[in-house]
Amino acid sequence: MEYDYFFRNATIVDGSGQPPFVGDVAIKDDMIVKVSQGGDSPSGTAFDATNLVLCPGFIDIHGHSDLEVLRNPSMDPKIMQGITTEVAGNCGVGVYPLSDENAALYEQAQDILGQYSPFTWKSFAEYAEVVGRKGSGTNMAFLQGHSPLRFFALGGNANRPASETEVTIMCSMLEKSFKEGCIGFSSGLYYAPCLFADRKELLALLRVTKQYDRLFSVHLRCEGNDILESIEEVLDLARLTGVRLEISHLKAIGRVNQILVPKMLAMLEHARMEGIDVLFDQYPYEYGSTSLFSLLPPHYLRLDRGDLQKLLKSPKERSAIKDEMQDPDGWDSLYELCGWDSITVLSLDSNKQYEGLSLTEIASLRAQGPFDSFFDLLMEEEGTALMIDITQSQDSVKRILSHPLMCFGTDALYAGDKTHPRSFQAAVHLLDKYWKQQNLMPLEMLISKMTLEPASRLGLSDRGKVMQGYKADLVIFDPASLQDNSTESDPSAKPDGMVLVMVNGKLSFFEGELTGVCSGSLLKSHS
Prior knowledge:
Helices cover 34% and strands 19% of the residues. With 527 residues, the protein is α/β, with parallel strands linked by helices. The longest helix has 17 residues, at 164-180. The protein starts with a strand and ends in a 13-residue tail after the last strand.
């Protein structure tokens, strides 16, 4: 057979968790057609990979590129770090289905997913057609987000419990999205409007998810003081419905809550022994990123941006919000858990001079108290406002990362001019810091968590492994020079040591340069 590409003398980490071995890999069209340990005659484009690691392309099980893939189809930020497959539509946030009136959905999409117009689709099938027409640098799979289902079914005010009729409409739309190829259902119980869903609504949606054997991915209701109760809530939902459960970006927020991490993990281990199909994902940083508005108490997040900003003009309303943020009841107040010093503005469209500064530093510059400064920033904001918040300890990150039930995700956002380094270098950061520098676990185990384990979780039977008959999604890197160069001030800095990224047999990155090739596939589930 005449090969297209032939990689010789590579250190192959095949994704299975087995020890590396030196061998050759041959590619024809979009497939791996041969893996051998020498003796084969090269043909096509031959590449000497001596002293280089060859592994499957990384799979990001938790992404938010629903609109980024339309703005920048080549998906360079993901390709640059070796990610060849992404699952988008997480945390309940999404852009389908659409009704004729979707002002609230546009607003939420802007805060988390960034700006894009026009929305020319109504259903997932129509959205997928747009993605397919534009092409994608990575393979893309999509979840059906809970938020757009609520906006669709509940009309103008989705921030309330749903009626039986509205739940029926949501279930019908979820079933339609599954038939059109969505691989699962996601909810963000921390965010409006999902946080207003009652138990009956969640059980109804999860029974549909179970019927189609799709994944349920969920951002827990609380990740701080009430983390254990929030884990038990979703475990009970999975127990009752039999759905496959993926807990998003598992963590405990707040210094005082780091002691809960062992108990969190023990709960999940016990659930597995009980027969509940639960796993979790994690990004490899002790700090997270989300909308600055999410610091507010949940019931204020039910308001549209204009009404909220009018309320914030009232000293009385500000005082009430301050009291709730200092003494929260049943919700995660990131201010109370982390403090103003640990909350840094990442992107602020209307006040760019404050980007990179903590809320404490901004308040000092404005000669205000931090609460009034925070309220004024929200009042003045006409675009995207993103923050970084230090939420957990390095010890907790490492304990969660090394757990057998963990698989890799980035939680990457592309909503503003600047974003969290995880959006550009999460995969390289994981390898550099936790394997190369700290040797948290053997390379073959870490690679498995980034490749075959998420592929298996998603039902991708022909990806995630270097093996004959699998798709040619591959990464080659130099372990000696591999280095994450991203920082909070320069999150998109190119890494060192990435040599090659291949998606479906086509080169997307080679010897330090992006090719711009859009060879990704749209990965759909069908029943």
